[in-house]
Design a protein that fits this description.
Blueprint: H1 4-27, H2 44-64, H3 73-87, H4 95-102, H5 104-107, H6 111-124, H7 141-158, H8 160-183, E1 190-194, E2 197-204, E3 211-214, E4 218-224, H9 226-230, E5 240-241, E6 250-257, H10 265-274, E7 279-280
Antiparallel strand pairs: 1-2, 2-6, 3-4, 4-6, 5-7
């Protein structure tokens, strides 16, 4: 088999990264920031389609296609990788396709250099600069880097279609724990009171129908996200963000003013902050 060392190195990096990440998370859970991009798409169905179908196909064509040696994949790599950099607002990564283009005669003659640069770009494009808040937050990047090496090996030995299948399987394996947590959350009822506002909530399964009722003094919603709940107050800017770890969870909300007065949105904002469902948005 060709370039078997890619498989071995990729698996070794993945194993070491998993151990380091696990130790950091176990001993210092607050030091490991959630750098995944699960929160980038609010709609769970759209997220699954993009992650399990679109991403494996497009990313393999863009990043691994050049290893097949066919000319049509080279412009696809230049344009596709540049597109990813712009869409993810990682403009600094545009230096990679520029280097590939300007020094293609040198870079593409060295398989090791091509593999490292290509895989580094593939790994970094999954994150934002803002994700790297400390040394520990760089650790998850090595997951993508190791998988990039393995997928190059699959492409070289089994073709681009097989690498798409492997990419799908890997994404599904990473998503499965998340999907199980979303569909079978710990259903804990919570009650918050502030002034005349009574606020009840509990987590519920992510898949199913959504229902809601809105009036001047009450809001009831079933199986909605935190962002969807805040959308019931279109004329008020909460100036908060939902943590990525909570973005996909669905909740049953019940909010009412016990005096049947118009709901005070300032109180609602404060309750959301106190319940740790949201964080203050930083300018």
């Amino acid at each position: 088999m060709r370039e078997r060392k890619l498989l071995y190195v990729g698996m070794a990096i993945f194993a070491c990264t998993a151990i380091v990440y696990g130790l950091l998370f176990y001993h210092y859970p607050n030091l490991v920031k959630a750098t995944d991009k699960f929160g980038n798409l609010e709609n769970i169905y759209l997220f699954l389609v993009s992650t399990l179908l679109i991403a494996p196909i497009v990313e393999e064509l863009v990043f691994r296609g050049i290893f097949l040696g066919k000319k049509l994949f080279f412009p696809l790599f230049y344009m596709g990788s540049s597109f990813f950099c712009v869409v993810t607002e990682n403009y600094y990564l545009l230096i990679f396709p520029v280097l590939f283009l300007l020094f293609r005669g040198v870079i593409f003659k060295n398989f090791l250099v091509v593999s490292i640069l290509n895989t580094t770009l593939f790994a970094l494009v999954h994150y934002h600069v803002s994700d790297f808040t400390d040394l520990y937050s760089f650790v998850p990047v090595f997951f993508q880097f190791s998988l990039g090496l393995v997928l190059i090996w699959v492409t070289l030995n089994y073709g681009i279609k097989k690498s798409m299948v492997v990419h799908f399987i890997l994404n599904f394996a990473f998503l499965l724990p998340l999907l199980l947590a979303l569909q079978f959350p710990e259903k804990q009822f919570s009650l918050f009171n502030r002034n005349s506002i009574e606020f009840k909530l509990e987590k519920t399964s992510v898949f199913g129908a959504t229902a809601f009722y809105v009036s001047g003094s009450a809001v009831k919603a079933e199986r909605v996200t935190i962002n969807q709940f805040m959308d019931f107050f279109p004329n008020y800017d909460f100036k908060v963000i939902v943590p990525d770890s909570l973005r996909f969870y669905r909740y049953n909300f019940s909010l009412r003013d016990i005096n049947n007065q118009k709901i005070n949105t300032t109180d609602v904002r404060q309750i959301l902050l106190e319940s740790k469902l949201v964080e203050v948005k930083k300018d």
